[in-house]
Design a protein that fits this description.
This protein has about 375 residues and is α+β, with helices and mostly antiparallel strands. The protein has 16 helices and eleven strands.
Length: about 375
């Protein structure tokens, strides 16, 4: 193992002058050739010339032995630094001296979490909630955690363990992206992040164990289907997601949760003289619970069966006579558009099409 050498700190500009003068003296046309002369790497030479690194004393001695003119630079040495100067504290030696490594790591995690929290608090003071809908929900006293839980049970996820959770929501819709971002901004201690993938899908994420704990109290799990390598039988042995929190919340919150769920995973159509309204859901228990929740709003619905689905269902279908009841509670969230999956209606606002459906069912609405 190579021994650490004393390092020399020259006055500003003198280390560069020494090396460039030495290059001329020994006729080195490039830094690469100088690296060969001094038995080091080209990148090290580059850092010596830029004075990012200090020169080891042995290197200076070697330069002096090959070029007499180097000795005059001795008067420009400002400091002689110890061999371990500039090295980071820690490493294996430090770890070996720690008696209780588990407690030490726990302490470090707390310090890092506190620093992250302080940084986010500073950011959150500068970034305020802009979405008018979210501001309105706060003013009305709507339970925003129930809203978030509903979003996660549609196009979202909550993953993690051991006090490390990531809350995420995915959507191509600009309106839904802005709503979820500001909901997380209001409910989380940390700043949510937004990214956009090549397919045009927004991903809104935040890592917050405290918020995750609150959401898990509402619903034990947000895993809505088996993983790719997991069998149906194994998945059903696990704890299943639930909508019981919507049975226990106030009526206003329940209405908004229904509206948000349909805005995210709902579809409406008016073709061939037939009006349809449905909510996509690939979980039998959740479908049955959605029927119960909708019935509390006098919205009658039935399960959509689908053999190709892992659970044999693909959502709930709202009966034609109950579509006006959905319209009465507000319908979809204003501004949410129909996705590109619909060739006929893509880009059209869902609420505009809902109004057309209501006119077809009941005639013009005042």
């Amino acid at each position: 193992m190579a021994t650490l050498q004393i390092r020399l700190k020259f006055r500003k500009g003198k280390q560069r002058e020494l090396l460039l003068s030495f290059m001329k003296a020994v006729k080195c046309s490039s830094q690469g050739k100088l690296a060969e002369v001094l038995s080091t790497k080209r990148n090290t030479i580059k850092n010596w010339i830029s004075e990012t690194y200090t020169i080891p004393s042995e290197v200076y001695k070697r330069i002096c032995s090959e070029w007499r003119g180097a000795k005059k630079f001795e008067r420009d040495i400002a400091l002689k630094l110890s061999p371990n100067w500039g090295l980071r504290k820690g490493g294996k030696n430090r770890i070996s001296r720690i008696k209780n490594l588990k407690e030490y790591c726990k302490k470090i995690r707390k310090i890092k979490a506190l620093r992250r929290l302080e940084k986010n608090e500073r950011l959150k003071k500068r970034i305020k909630i802009k979405n008018k809908l979210v501001l309105g929900l706060i003013k009305e006293g709507v339970d925003l955690k129930c809203i978030l839980a509903t979003y996660l049970l549609t196009d979202g996820s909550l993953l993690g363990k051991h006090n490390c959770y990531r809350i995420a929501y995915y959507s191509k819709d600009e309106t839904l992206k802005n709503i979820v971002h500001d909901l997380l901004l209001n409910e989380s201690r940390y700043m949510p992040s937004i990214s956009l993938d090549k397919k045009g899908v927004y991903s809104i994420r935040v890592s917050d164990s405290e918020l995750a704990d609150s959401l898990i109290k509402l619903n034990p799990t947000y895993k809505k289907l088996p993983f790719k390598i997991q069998s149906k039988e194994d998945y059903l042995k696990e704890m299943q997601p639930s909508l019981d929190f919507l049975k226990n919340c106030d009526n206003k919150t329940r209405q908004w949760c229904i509206r948000f769920a349909f805005s995210t995973d709902g579809s409406i159509s008016l073709s061939q003289g037939r009006s349809t309204l449905s909510l996509a859901c690939y979980h039998l228990m959740l479908c049955k619970q959605w029927i119960e929740i909708l019935s509390l709003m006098n919205i009658k619905s039935t399960i959509i069966k689908r053999k190709a689905s892992w659970c044999g269902v693909s959502g709930v279908y709202v009966r034609k006579e109950s579509i006006p009841e959905f319209y009465r509670i507000g319908g979809f969230v204003d501004g949410v558009k129909i996705s590109k999956k619909s060739k006929e209606y893509k880009g059209l606002e869902k609420n505009k099409l809902l109004s057309s459906v209501i006119k077809r069912i009941n005639g013009p609405v005042a």
